[in-house]
Please model this.
Amino acid sequence: MRLTILGGGGFRVPLVYGALLADRGEGRVTEVVLHDLDAGRLHTVARVLAEQASVVGDAPRVTTTTDLDEALRGADFVFSAIRVGGLEGRANDERVALAEGVLGQETVGAGGVAYGLRTVPVAVDIARRVARLAPDAWVINFTNPAGLVTEAMSRHLGDRVIGICDSPVGLGRRIARVLGADPKEAWIDYVGLNHLGWVRGLRVAGRDELPRLLADPGLLSSFEEGRLFGADWLRSLGAVPNEYLHYYYFNRETVRAYQEAEKTRGAFLRDQQARFYEEAGRADVSALGAWDRTRNEREATYMAENRETSGAGEREADDLSGGYEKVALALMRAIARDERTTLILNVRNQGTLSVLDRDAVIEVPCLVDANGAHPVAVAPLPGHATGLVCSVKAVEREVLAAAESGSRTTAVKAFALHPLVDSVDVARRLVDGYTAVHPGLAYLK
Model:
């Protein structure tokens, strides 16, 4: 079975390859094709993968290419993890937004809108090429903003594109662990959009254990989201939000923390990864060793400003090991081998949430089999969550419309309608600022 990884020179590719090395079942991936526009990064990541494979027998063969069509032909699965504009683009997203006093995070607020505007046209081109060159392939999208990009690609690939994210998985795992339950035995009632969802229940043997968690201050303070949001707020919600909702519920505090930080997250990762690719590209250095050291630092500093603002403290050791590669592998196995499983995924709504149309991509538990991912019916969201989900989905639709039409006016509308951008004038200045620094937004007229 052939897996093509778009963004194959990306830093997290070794996580995916490591998961493949541990998979020894029938019908496993035997060939991995790495595609990237940067041949130097491709070479470095291939070195890391070669070191990983050196201690494993019968490892999947790895090839690299900068030719997208070549990479797609013959693929059974396509894993999309591209970053349009690179980490310099992410740093610019943050800088332009923070200068206007609004959030520049890569998937939330103004930064997410900017990232979506420059990523959607590229993702649509990829989807069209997949439909032409590998029509039977399944596309697994991790490219951010994951829900928005998956919806853009679904307009050309239908249900053969599925978005993944490790945030809901990590959240469910932490809650189960605190409650003394095996995450594999728990049913997680999670619903929303990507980076905008809530755990409303966690059932073990048919019993919802979440009320027990919400009623116990000690349990609530024992895991990251409990400390991040605070016990009183979680009890008010009657649910545990995805960590990214901290940007909404504590927006002013987070923006101030980002403005006062020595570096934004994008700038930190840009500089960190530049050092990694330089070091790991040297013949006298273990590329895998350099990657391990860099990854540990990256994971330990994840959402550091939010945790500092809330007093959440350091990340727990169990949360430093990644997770999205495990979701990707479980998804591929379920489809390729018909190993039926349940995963929280980004898929077309198909009537699951009545407040959204059938084609809107949402993030919910899905039953996965050889025919793909099927969203499980969920109870309606409470009013506060419904309002936020509908508002952000409306913004995503304006981003898609702007990307399709090239309309600068529609792009301004997308920024202005976002709940975390509180001014049409600010929205106009954001479009001016982003088009000035991002060549990928030159299509907006």
Q: What stands out?
A: The longest helix spans residues 109-133. The chain has a mean pLDDT of 94.
